[in-house]
Write a structure and sequence with these properties.
Shape: globular
Distance between the termini: 50 Å
Structural class: mainly beta
CATH topology of the largest domain: Immunoglobulin-like
Largest sheet: 5 strands, mixed
CATH superfamily of the largest domain: Domain of unknown function DUF5300
């Protein structure tokens, strides 16, 4: 009987030790932490094809956008999509199909689905919008170059407190960088010609938000809607991760 009591007591202490080891302290909101957004995939569509306005976009049978403009009148927003292998279809005007292809979406992952122009047709570019860690008190940014015929000597720079310079060719992109909420000068320079192509002074990076700085258009188009331009996309990471942190 005494041996049985010792055995039960030993099992009790062993279980208590396992519970203590498995317990994790909850970090403060100011501490960067790994977080998953939701059980859905989240997709943001961006029209960077100047000759194709009012694009209709389907993910399977679900209509993501009925009229997605090059000027992004609908704004930037993530839409919940069931994860898995999904058939994405992009339609233009009399429901003529510009793109029809399978895309694999992972659960709890946000994406940006770029539609850019290559001569008289479109091409897709699907990017993960994931972060290695997240904090409400930080801002995030990355660069994307989907401007046709762009020089190979372009340098994208965020100046002042967080200088980052990256040479990006056509269809190239960076990961998200982490910085503090602040006003920053954004510059795109042709290093070979030592000329500034685009400059934004004191652009505000807000806390909890992400920013994609996109170079789009065609360098063979001198002026007008198809000429090179910069689009800055705001990602509402604070809304995506809110439910998981709350």
């Amino acid at each position: 009987m005494k041996d049985m009591r010792k055995y039960i007591l030993y099992k009790f202490y062993f279980l208590a030790l396992c519970i203590l080891i498995g317990c994790q302290c909850i970090p403060s909101l100011d501490t960067e932490q790994e977080i998953t957004p939701s059980q859905y995939s989240k997709v943001m569509c961006v029209n960077c094809a100047p000759q194709f306005e009012k694009l209709k976009i389907y993910a399977g049978d679900f209509l993501l956008h009925s009229a997605l403009y090059y000027g992004m009148e609908e704004g930037f927003r993530y839409i919940n999509v069931l994860p898995g292998v999904i058939n994405f279809v992009v339609l233009y005007k009399s429901d003529s199909t510009l793109f029809n292809g399978m895309v694999s979406l992972r659960k709890a992952v946000p994406y940006t689905f770029f539609i850019y122009q290559l001569q008289k047709r479109i091409q897709p570019l699907l990017l993960y919008d994931t972060l290695s860690s997240y904090s409400f008190t930080n801002s995030y940014f990355r660069f994307v170059n989907i401007a046709n015929n762009s020089p190979g000597s372009l340098v994208f720079t965020v100046e002042q407190q967080y200088p980052v310079a990256v040479g990006l060719g056509f269809r190239s992109f960076t990961k998200f960088f982490t910085t503090y909420p602040e006003k920053y000068n954004i510059e795109i320079r042709d290093a070979e010609k030592d000329s500034v192509l685009f400059f934004y002074k004191s652009y505000s990076f807000l806390p909890g938000k992400g920013y994609t700085i996109v170079l789009r258009g065609d360098f063979k188009v001198a002026s007008g809607i198809g000429s090179p331009s910069v689009l800055i996309i705001q990602h509402n990471f604070d809304e995506i991760y809110y439910q998981e942190i709350k």
